[in-house]
Amino acid sequence: MSTRRAISSLVVAMTVMVSASASAQAPAAGQTPFEPQVGQAGKDVVWVPTPQGVVDKMLDMAKVTKDDFVMDLGSGDGRTVITAAKRGARAMGIEYNPDMVDLSKKNAEAAGMTARATFMKADLFETDLSKANVITMFLLPSINMKLRPTILNLKPGTRIVANTFTMEDWQADETATVTDGCSSSWCTALLWIVPAKVEGTWGTPGGDLKLTQTFQIISGTLGTQAVQGRLHGAAIEFTAGTTKYSGTVEGNTIKMTAPSAMTATKKM
Question: If you compute the radius of gyration of the chain from its CA atoms, what whole number of angstroms results?
């Protein structure tokens, strides 16, 4: 399914199911426990769960390990947070619906993951994302775009993984379609790695390195030679003429390791 058709399908779900979802809110005490309904209304999007196969693929693409802190934006029933916790990571779900937060906590308890899986009732636009090095989400493109400036200001190397929906002209570093364990319309996993900011002029022993940056793609000149390259978080690679350069961006310096050791310093 194309992105346009996928968006249309989700919008239809939002329109058709909002009225039904109003009756699916938390029941009064003594009634049956809360059960989420696919398509139920939320603050920013309706709830459509990410298929488990896509959850697994997203976390695979982000290379989640026990050393990571994962934040899931719009965490729903908690499945992504709990899956990350099962991989040894610390994980937190950000969810506006208090009934979903309570349900997630129960699901984490049932999975034995309460030590590593936590949930917070919060607005994702008002949440500090800076402590996460992996962010997961299944949000509409319009919401992704509202979040994009905040995401681009996170620490270089922060991994962002999403189900299906893009960041428009910020192209994903990796895209995968899940066929095993996913039979819905939402079977695409996308990965972005927050790039370091390198646009500007850098002084090097070989002359000025002048860079223009479009997200992770860079171009410019080194002395009189044309430069083309890209960033992978803080890692930088580019070709100037026939020479390939690689190194690491560290604030206002770039420490080159190939073809030989060299330091570029940002000119203010």
Answer: 21
Question: What is the tens place of the pLDDT at every residue in 202-213?
Answer: 999 989 999 999
Does a cis peptide bond (omega within 30 degrees of 0) precede residue 195? no
Backbone angles phi, psi at 119, to 5 degrees: -140, 145
Alpha helix (H) ranges present in the chain? 3-22, 52-61, 79-86, 98-110, 141-152
- pLDDT single digits (tens) 30-44: 567 767 655 455 556
Say if residues 192 and 166 touch (Cβ distance below 8 Å): no
Residue 208's alpha-carbon distances to 214, 226, 249, in angstroms, are 20, 12, 16
Q: Give residue for tokens 């996460």.
A: 132
Q: What's the whole-model pTM score?
A: 0.84
Contact of 188 with 163, CB cutoff 8 Å: yes
